[in-house]
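We close this part of the discussion by returning to an individual protein. The encoding preserves chain order, so positions in sequence and tokens coincide. The sequence in question and its structure tokens are set out directly beneath this paragraph:

===
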Amino acid sequence: MTVPPDAPATAVDQYPVTSPQIRRVSWHAGVLLVVTVCAVYLARRHWPVIETGVGRLASADRGWLLVATAAAVATWVCSALAQQGAVARPLPARRLLAVQFAASAANHVLPAGFGAGAVNLRFLTRCGLPVARSATALAVKGTAGTVVRGCLIAALALACPGALRFPHISATAWAVTLALLTSALILLSGPLRRVLRAVLADVRAVHEAPARAAALWGGSLAFAALHACVVISVTQAIELPLPPAQVALAYLAASSAAVLLPTPGGLGSLDAALALALTLAGAPGSAAASTVLGYRLLTVWLPLLPGLVTLGLLVRRRVL
């Protein structure tokens, strides 16, 4: 059919669908499909763990479980606060909070630290920051979190003398570990120096603005403390006979040690380290296992699917 030359343009004529737009939609759909498949695979693979955790926690104190849930939700707010403190320009608050929620889910699907780092890096670049500046901001946030965690462990170890117990490790294992770390430092000495210089420069810039420094350090401190609060609340819910300070120390030490075995979201490594730390602190084996299951349910399994859905929506809306 011939269209008259003076016929009005239709919406399709005015806004034609270009090839790049089709590729972008296909890429978004592919990302959403991949994260959905990963969520289903992880849930199916670990379903016995989820089912056992629900069963053991069914008779726990609901009030303490509610406290643990509130603490877990607040960790995303604190993560957003710390990220804002590491960046000079103001970030959109609602999108920043949604990104932290999505990043925590991505961190449990991809290799350790890569998921959350990639999501936050993409968000910062979408907000107009250069890639190098965005990467440095993530490094500043990570450095603050590491320093805060170390200070908390030192303070709790002094407050609870003898509570921090280490499993026996042979001299050969220590020697091999030290040799590997030394070799890695020698091989990466050049890039590490450049990264450290950039991070230190940004840390100095952060402390020139008191509000940024307060957001960075306050958010990092609250983030670590609230995760410890989740574990403490679960132990209180199942009536585990351990002082809260010892439970917090066990969690912080275990989560720090789990970094040495990089797995997605610390799955497996953190679970084993936390159960071992609680057992060494005097908790019965079954109670330690229930604590780990409760902590994982509240911080990983229950928010995982909503977090991945949020990630897909953020990608679709080009926030990421």
Observations:
- The chain has a mean pLDDT of 79.
- The radius of gyration is 23 Å.
- The chain has 13 helices and no strands.
- The CA atoms of residues 23 and 88 lie 34 Å apart.
